[in-house]
Amino acid sequence: ARSENCPPDVEQLGRATWTFLHTTAAYYPEKPTPNQRANMLTLIRSLPVLYPCTHCASDFGEEVKKSPPDVSGRVGLSRWLCERHNEVNEKLGKSKFNCAVEKLDERWKDGPDDGSCD
Ligand code: FAD
């Protein structure tokens, strides 16, 4: 088995990156300042340039061109990101995630009502 201390493979890097992006979107303000919006746009637009899986980065860049980031507030951003992640899921033959804000908040911010993540 591959040790925990090995450099991340494409799957581990992907999980860690999605965790960061979805969590950051879940806590993004409802009404971001112009500075927060500009920085979020920069963060998203940096991925096609810097993400260290070259084919992942270039495909993501194409998707971002087709669907410009919605940085207007946390609900729009969370949904936009969910849709982009679903495009990758589809490409990889993984199942799609329900992009309703309730589902996204449960997964990335609040946890389920049964308290199993408290
Ligand atoms: P992941 O897809 O990593 O998802 C982690 C968790 O997020 C899931 O368990 C689920 O609870 C939740 N989730 C799933 N879908 C959504 C959604 N739509 N919205 C919100 N939450 C969701 N891998 C490749 O092999 N080829 C690629 O071209 C490629 N491109 C990528 C581009 C980007 C920008 C990123 C960040 C990753 C990319 N990856 C790519 C990695 C790939 O998306 C997965 O991260 C990796 O295959 C591990 O998948 P996983 O099944 O562990 O779950």
UniProtKB/TrEMBL annotation:
UniProt domain ERV/ALR sulfhydryl oxidase: residue ranges: 6-108
Keywords: Disulfide bond, FAD, Flavoprotein, Mitochondrion, Oxidoreductase
Subcellular localization(s) per the UniProt record: Mitochondrion intermembrane space
Catalysed reactions listed for this entry: 2 R'C(R)SH + O2 = R'C(R)S-S(R)CR' + H2O2
A single GO molecular function term of this UniProt record: flavin adenine dinucleotide binding
The protein's Enzyme Commission number: 1.8.3.2
Cofactors: FAD
The UniProt record lists the keyword Disulfide bond: yes
GO cellular component, one term: mitochondrial intermembrane space
EC category: oxidoreductase
Name listed for the protein in its UniProt record: Sulfhydryl oxidase
Annotated organism of origin: Hermanssonia centrifuga
Entire protein: shown range: 81 to 198 of 198
